[in-house]
């Protein structure tokens, strides 16, 4: 784990003395890449261990900056954590603190996921508001309303969300909750809180993302009673307590999607392993529309067959719609596709910041509100570019692989948040790049 990058204030490292990634293109890739465990599952499941007063062993955990931060947050709450290769041994018997530290929470939005488990387990939780980030305001009103429906008193003072349950049992009560929007985070918070509540909870218009289902399977492996995860209606019957477990996390569908696009944008036949193909259905469908093919080699291995790239339209939606976390990478691909493509970002209000950087590389993109019209160009040119968020950084790396000449990507702390050893993996596929 790259501890060197976790500082008390990650902004301490100014852009000028931060490492940059130099990429020489155009390059062709070949071979097979190993896909790591899913970041967005790992973060929610790590928070979920707070529900259990026994040992939890979680394997296939990626080595990422965000995972490192969640480890620090759990440790600050008094949780014992030990990492061995890709496995975390976690024991949350003694939760000493019910307040998550601001300086850590402010660096990791997903840390807000601890509020549900802390409240369910202890009847009280104090978690700083995560605040907005580069891609949007990202409020937590749906999380809070869900917990209030289960009987929690919730107030927000000085930027801290105070939640507690009145009454002697201090237990949450089951409730019927209908989400205004199928928020991944709110679904996960409410589902985790409901596992130890009195009675039954129904979550209507729930998020159906594979990471939500993975979290539900993790909770069930500890004895939780959850039905319908992966559909738009989840039913949880609360239990008294949960027991120890040994749980492997699913492969990262967004990392897999990013490598599929790496193959497509460099016209390279590459394979990915392990993946869960159905998790990638919306991405594979669009890759076929732009002229590539994706072959299922065995139930866990995919092979990309490159093709002449043609334009298509993308609209990001909650799962099983096209994932917003693949929008930037796909836009990079469409900059080199024959014709005009329309990319509409409907999930986050500020997730087109990579457009300006792709334009530096010669892309022809016009933006109006949340819609970008991408006119394919014959080639991209290498240039110095700045990553503005996690998936934007991946898009710039992909564009750099296809561009003529040298691309220099700054803002790598974004990339390190969500991609495990991406440079080594790309080098193993034949890419010419280095971090300096
Ligand atoms: C999760 O974020 C992922 N993060 C995001 O991945 C992903 O983009 C997102 O789901 C959508 O798929 C993790 O799992 C750690 P949401 P989350 O709640 O839970 C609004 C990446 O690149 N909303 O489904 O925060 C919100 O503002 C990251 O790996 C409310 O209005 O996403 C947004 O517009 C980025 N009120 C929309 O819903 C709420 O209380 C979707 O947010 C909650 C959300």
Automatic annotation (TrEMBL):
Phosphoenolpyruvate binds at residues 39-40. One of its GO terms (molecular function) is UDP-N-acetylglucosamine 1-carboxyvinyltransferase activity. The modification 2-(S-cysteinyl)pyruvic acid O-phosphothioketal is found at residue 133. Belongs to the EPSP synthase family. MurA subfamily. The keyword ATP-binding does not apply. CDD domains: UdpNAET. It catalyses: phosphoenolpyruvate + UDP-N-acetyl-alpha-D-glucosamine = UDP-N-acetyl-3-O-(1-carboxyvinyl)-alpha-D-glucosamine + phosphate. Its EC number is 2.5.1.7. This is UDP-N-acetylglucosamine 1-carboxyvinyltransferase.
């Amino acid at each position: 784990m790259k501890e060197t990058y976790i500082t008390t204030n990650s902004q301490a490292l100014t852009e000028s003395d931060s490492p940059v990634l130099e990429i020489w293109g155009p390059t062709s890739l070949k071979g097979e890449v190993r896909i790591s465990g899913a970041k967005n599952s790992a973060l929610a499941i790590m928070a979920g261990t707070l529900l259990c007063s026994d040992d939890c062993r979680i394997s296939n955990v990626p080595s990422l900056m965000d995972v490192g931060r969640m480890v620090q947050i759990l440790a600050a709450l008094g949780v014992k954590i030990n990492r061995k290769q890709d496995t975390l041994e976690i024991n949350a018997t003694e939760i000493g603190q019910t307040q998550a530290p601001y300086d850590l929470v402010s660096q990791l939005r997903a840390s807000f996921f601890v509020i549900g488990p802390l409240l369910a387990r202890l009847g009280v939780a104090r978690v700083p508001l995560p605040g907005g980030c580069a891609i949007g305001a990202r409020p937590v009103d749906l999380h809070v309303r869900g917990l209030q429906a289960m009987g929690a008193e919730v107030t927000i003072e000085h930027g801290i969300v105070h939640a507690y349950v009145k009454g002697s049992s201090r237990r949450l009560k089951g409730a019927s909750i209908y989400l205004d929007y199928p928020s991944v985070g709110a679904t996960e918070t409410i589902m985790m809180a409901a596992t130890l509540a009195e009675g039954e909870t129904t979550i209507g218009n729930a998020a159906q993302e594979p990471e939500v289902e993975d979290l539900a399977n993790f909770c069930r492996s500890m004895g939780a009673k959850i039905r319908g995860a992966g559909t738009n209606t989840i039913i949880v019957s609360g239990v008294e307590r949960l027991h120890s477990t040994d749980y492997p996390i699913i492969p990262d569908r967004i990392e897999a999607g990013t490598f599929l696009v790496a193959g497509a944008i460099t016209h390279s036949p590459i394979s990915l392993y392990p993946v869960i193909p159905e998790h990638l259905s919306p991405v594979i469908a669009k890759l076929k529309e732009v002229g590539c093919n994706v072959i299922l080699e065995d139930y866990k291995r995919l092979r990309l067959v490159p093709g002449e790239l043609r334009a298509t339209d993308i609209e990001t939606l909650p799962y099983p719609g096209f994932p917003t976390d693949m929008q930037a990478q796909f836009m990079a691909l469409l900059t080199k596709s024959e014709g005009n493509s329309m990319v509409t970002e409907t999930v986050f209000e500020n997730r087109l910041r990579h457009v300006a950087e792709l334009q530096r590389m010669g892309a022809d993109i016009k933006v109006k509100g949340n819609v970008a019209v991408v006119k394919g160009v014959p080639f991209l040119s290498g240039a110095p570019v700045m990553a503005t968020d996690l998936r934007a950084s991946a898009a710039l790396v992909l564009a750099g692989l296809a561009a003529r000449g040298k691309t220099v990507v700054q803002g790598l702390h974004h990339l390190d948040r969500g991609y495990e050893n991406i440079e080594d993996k790309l080098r193993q596929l034949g890419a010419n790049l280095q971090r300096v």
